TrEMBL record:
It is found in: Cytoplasm. It comes from Leisingera methylohalidivorans DSM 14336. Its cofactor is [4Fe-4S] cluster. Iminosuccinate binds at residues 25, 43, 114-116, 131, 200-202, 217. InterPro entries: NadA, NadA_sf, Quinolinate_synth_type2. Its EC number is 2.5.1.72. This is Quinolinate synthase. HAMAP family: NadA_type2 (MF_00568). One of its GO terms (cellular component) is cytosol. Catalyzes the condensation of iminoaspartate with dihydroxyacetone phosphate to form quinolinate. Pfam families: NadA. The gene is nadA. Keywords: 4Fe-4S, Cytoplasm, Iron, Iron-sulfur, Metal-binding, Pyridine nucleotide biosynthesis, Transferase. Pathway: Cofactor biosynthesis; NAD(+) biosynthesis; quinolinate from iminoaspartate: step 1/1. It comes from the Bacteria.
Length: 304
C-alpha cells in the first residue's frame, strides 16, 4: 500500500477537481477497488449506476464495453477509460453482421446479447443481459426460440435454467473462464476437502455443474457473505477473491485463479494520467448509441 498511497492521494484530489466518479468492476485490483473507486459492482450494477451518475465525468475502471455502456446511458457525461486496449474476448467475438447471420438462421427469434459486446452489437440486438439477469431475460421473451450472443457457455448454462425455451447461441467465449475444466474442480475437491467451489456462469457447463454455486460477480460476493464457508475457491478472475477477502476474514480463499489480461490493463498510474489529461474519452456514434440504449434500457427495466 505504501507504493500506492501517493497515486491514491493524487487521484482522490483530481477526482474532486474534475467532478469525477470512478466506477470500478469487481475484477479491478484491490488498490483500485478499495483505494479510489466510488462505486464497485458487477456489470449490471455498474450500468444502473452509470445511468444515475450526477458528476460531470465518469472514469470507467473496467473494460471497454463497460465504458461504452456508461456512455450509452449517460450520453451527456464525459466517460473516460484509462486504457483503450482494455478489451474483452467476448466483445471481440461478434460483430453486428454476426447478429444478422443469427437472425437469418432463426427467423423471428429475439436476440439477447450479453453486455460484453460492442455498442454496434447492442444496437443490432433486441435486449441485453448480464450474468446476473440472463435467465430472467431469456424467460421473459415471447418466442420459444431465443438467440443468445456471444457467450456459448453462458447460453448453455442459461438453457439449463430455462428449459421451456429453445436457446441457441453464438460460439464466443471468455478466455479467463473457458480455461477451467471439470477435472480441475474434481481434483481440487479431492486435495482440499470441504472447500466450497463457486463458479462464474461464463465457465463451461460441466464446470458449473461441478461447482457448489454459480453466479455473477455480485452473486458470488452475496453467496460468500451469506454462507461464510470456512474455505472457498472462486472459479473466476483473481482479483475477485483479493477484493472480498478483507471483508470476510473468517473465509479462507484458496486455489488457483485466472487473470483477465484486459482488466489488468487498468492501473492506478493510468487512472491518474486519465484524470490529469482527460483521456481517453469514449465516443459512441449517436445513432448507434440511441439503438443500443433501447436494448440496455429494456434489460434494466426487466431487472428491476
Ligand atoms: P459480471 O457481470 O458477473 O460482473 O461479469 C462481467 C465479466 O466480464 C465477467 O468476466
Ligand atoms: Fe471479457 Fe472474460 Fe475479461 Fe470478463 S474476464 S472482461 S468476459 S475476457
Amino acid at each position: 500500500w505504501a507504493t500506492h498511497a501517493p497515486y491514491v492521494a493524487a487521484i482522490l484530489e483530481l477526482k474532486k477537481q474534475r467532478n469525477a466518479v470512478i466506477l470500478a468492476h469487481n475484477y479491478m485490483t484491490p488498490e483500485i477497488y478499495h483505494g479510489v473507486s466510488d462505486v464497485v459492482g458487477d456489470s449490471l450494477q455498474l450500468a444502473i449506476e452509470a445511468a444515475n451518475v450526477e458528476a460531470d465525468v465518469i472514469v470507467q475502471c473496467g473494460v471497454h464495453f463497460m465504458a461504452e455502456t456508461s456512455k450509452i446511458l449517460s450520453p451527456d457525461k464525459t466517460v473516460l477509460i484509462p486504457d483503450m486496449e482494455a478489451g474483452c474476448s467476448l466483445a471481440e467475438s461478434i460483430t453486428a453482421e454476426g447478429i444478422e447471420q443469427m437472425r437469418a438462421k432463426y427467423p423471428g427469434a429475439p436476440v439477447v446479447s450479453y453486455v460484453n459486446t460492442t455498442a454496434e452489437v447492442k444496437a443490432a440486438s433486441d435486449i441485453c443481459c448480464t450474468s446476473s439477469n440472463a435467465a430472467q431475460i431469456v424467460a421473459a421473451q415471447d418466442s420459444h426460440t431465443v438467440i443468445m450472443t456471444p457467450d456459448q457457455y453462458l447460453a448453455q448454462n442459461v438453457a439449463k435454467q430455462v428449459p421451456q425455451k429453445n436457446v441457441v447461441w453464438w460460439e464466443g467465449s471468455c478466455i479467463v473462464h473457458e480455461r477451467y475444466t471439470a477435472q480441475d474442480l474434481r481434483d481440487f475437491r479431492e486435495w482440499n476437502p470441504g472447500t466450497r467451489l463457486i463458479a462464474h456462469p461464463e465457465c463451461p457447463p460441466d464446470v458449473v455443474n461441478e461447482a457448489d454455486f454459480s453466479g455473477s460477480t455480485s452473486g458470488i460476493l452475496k453467496y460468500v457473505t451469506d454462507e461464510k464457508p470456512e474455505k472457498a475457491m472462486l472459479i473466476t478472475e483473481c482479483s475477485m477473491a483479493s477484493n472480498i477477502a478483507d471483508q470476510l476474514p473468517e473465509v479462507e480463499f484458496v486455489g488457483p485463479c485466472n487473470m483477465c489480461p484486459y482488466m489488468k490493463k487498468i492501473t492506478l498510474e493510468k487512472i491518474l494520467w486519465s484524470l490529469h489529461t482527460m483521456t481517453e474519452p469514449v465516443v459512441v456514434d449517436l445513432d448507434v448509441a440511441e439503438k443500443a440504449r433501447v436494448a440496455v434500457q429494456r434489460m434494466i427495466d426487466l431487472s428491476q
